[in-house]
């Protein structure tokens, strides 16, 4: 069988203007199994409120995902595991939404708080991404850059309807107005999509503190050229800060690689290497 290697890295930064970092990030790669995730939340709602909401979101998802790899999960078929992973992610997002709403009801100073969320989880070669708001996930491989999420924002709706170009949206004074978030209604409504990874790839997640300054072309250029790949997170943070750093800035990288099978024949001075498959993403499911 092919051997899967997953490595992750992440960073969050207060930026050049804000007095508090309302972003929160968690990332993890299991040392024994091909399992890893990155979670980024960008809070909103006034002093301490945004930071509280984003922390609740990332900690709730972290707790649920860290407890996923138990005996029942590991003993299931790959198809069952994929269903269980998606179900666990949905349940974790619902739980985070409930926890934020509870905190708002018991702390009046947090009445306006909420948070965006983007999370990418890889188990074996199965990738699932969930998001609310304008924090994004991208995938880069030798075919180029693919945006895996579509912003839940007013300017994205205007782009979709032809009222704005992407370039105009970048300069719009309503570019930070989002249409979905955690902690704003009784029912969370994330978009959840899944893919099967069949080749080496980089997954990049970020808050809008990155995409306010770096468009898709700039992101692709960094992912394609900056090495080691996991250190791209520092490049994204540094570039956003250098260009103004008006918002908090968070970025996470998940590096997925498939090592070809190597068959060693005893007493023969040669080895056989099975080449990697040349096909790409083969399945996408939408919630």
Automatic annotation (TrEMBL):
PROSITE patterns (UniProt xref): PPM_2
InterPro entries: PP2C (IPR015655), PPM-type-like_dom_sf (IPR036457), PPM-type_phosphatase-like_dom (IPR001932)
Residues covered by the PPM-type phosphatase domain: 1-256
GO molecular-function term, one example from the UniProt record: protein serine/threonine phosphatase activity
A Pfam short name: PP2C_2
Protein name: Serine/threonine protein phosphatase
């Amino acid at each position: 069988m092919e051997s899967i290697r997953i490595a992750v890295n992440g960073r969050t930064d207060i930026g050049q203007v804000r007095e508090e970092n309302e972003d929160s990030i968690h990332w993890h790669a299991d040392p024994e199994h091909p399992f890893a995730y990155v979670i980024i939340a960008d809070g909103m709602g006034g002093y301490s409120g945004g930071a509280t909401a984003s922390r609740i979101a990332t900690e709730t998802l972290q707790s649920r995902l860290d407890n996923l790899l138990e005996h029942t999960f590991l003993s299931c078929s790959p198809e069952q595991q994929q269903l269980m992973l998606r179900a666990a992610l949905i349940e974790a997002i619902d739980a985070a939404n409930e926890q934020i709403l509870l905190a708002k009801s018991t702390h009046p100073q947090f009445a306006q708080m909420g948070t965006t969320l983007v999370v990418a989880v890889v188990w074996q070669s199965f990738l699932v991404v969930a998001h609310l708001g304008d924090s994004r996930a991208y995938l880069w491989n030798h075919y180029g850059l693919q945006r895996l999420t579509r912003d839940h924002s007013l300017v994205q709706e205007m782009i979709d309807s032809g009222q704005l170009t992407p370039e105009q949206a970048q300069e719009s004074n309503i570019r930070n107005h989002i249409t979905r978030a955690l902690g704003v209604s009784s029912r969370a409504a994330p978009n959840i999509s899944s893919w099967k990874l069949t080749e080496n790839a980089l997954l990049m997640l970020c808050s809008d503190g990155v995409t306010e300054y770096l468009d898709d072309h700039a992101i692709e250029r960094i992912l394609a050229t900056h090495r080691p790949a996991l250190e791209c997170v520092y490049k994204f943070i540094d570039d956003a800060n250098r260009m103004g750093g008006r918002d908090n800035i968070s970025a996470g990288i998940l590096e997925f690689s498939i090592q070809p099978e190597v068959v060693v024949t005893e007493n023969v001075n040669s080895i056989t290497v099975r080449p990697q498959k040349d096909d790409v993403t083969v399945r996408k499911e939408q919630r």
